[in-house]
Amino acid sequence: MSSFSFENQAAIVTGAGQGIGFEIARQLSIKGASVLLNDIDESLATESASKIHEEGGTCIAMPGDASNVPFVRSMVNEAVEQFGHLTLAVANAGITLFGDFFDYEPETLQKVMNLNLNGTFFLTQAVARQFKKQGKGGSILLMSSVTGHQAHKNLTAYGMTKAGIEMLAKSLVIELSPHHININTIAPGATLTERTQQDKDYEQTWSHLTPMGRPGTVQDIANAALFLLSPDSRHITGQNLIIDGGWSSVSPSPYQN
Asked: Among 2, 31, 139, 158, which one carries the catalytic annotation?
């Protein structure tokens, strides 16, 4: 676990009911930050915030749809009301909808775009407005994916949104740097989460395909996230960090025969 301290910091982490988002929220909170934990699943959000509270962290649940702009803005208001300020944000909420390009439906594409791109864009906007108002800067982290760098079968729409998220962070260096706000992205590769482990072959398959010999863990991803959110990385902005055990250097596909 990262050794960074986040005392007197306040964060929003979306899509944090389980998996990578939960571990980022948990580590931030254990390291001293007050965390607003969001997930669209109300019971999951409440349960996860309670788990962090039981470990001694300060964490409140705010369930809701992170693609809904009024709700996104209300999260910022709630964090400030509860914690007195806001200094960190992690736009982790996203959706993966597999589908063959030739058969992909408009409503499916719109779901992916609404959460992955629109939700990320407007959370970043709402958070940056608050940082600007406070006048003390802040750190924003967006969640990309190796599929934004390497083609992956049946993930054309998803990969497109993730590449767009990286360009969003790069472009916002111009807008945010004068306000001492840094913004970066991380791009996880194959990672063991509650969702991916529903596939009984997932760990074995990706252990074979990953040069480091195993898929990532949520701790691997959260450790990198905490570095980019920490004061030690405030001069890093507009960058993307791939965390995939070397997979994108060689890019073997799980669909190869």
From this structure: 158
158 is an active site residue: yes
Residue-wise pLDDT tens digits, 74-110: 999 999 999 999 999 999 999 999 999 999 999 999 9
Model pTM score: 0.95
Contact call for residues 212 and 245 (beta carbons, < 8 A): yes
CA distance 103 to 5: 48
Structure tokens at 118: 């629109």
The enclosing domain of 233 has a CATH number of 3.40.50.720
DSSP class of residue 238 equals S
Average pLDDT over residues 61-72: 98
The answer to whether residue 227 is domain-embedded is: yes
Range of the domain at 120: 10-188+217-243
Kindly state whether residue 257 falls inside one of the protein's structural domains: no
197 domain residue, yes or no: no
Which position among 48, 67, 145, 162 bears the catalytic label? 162
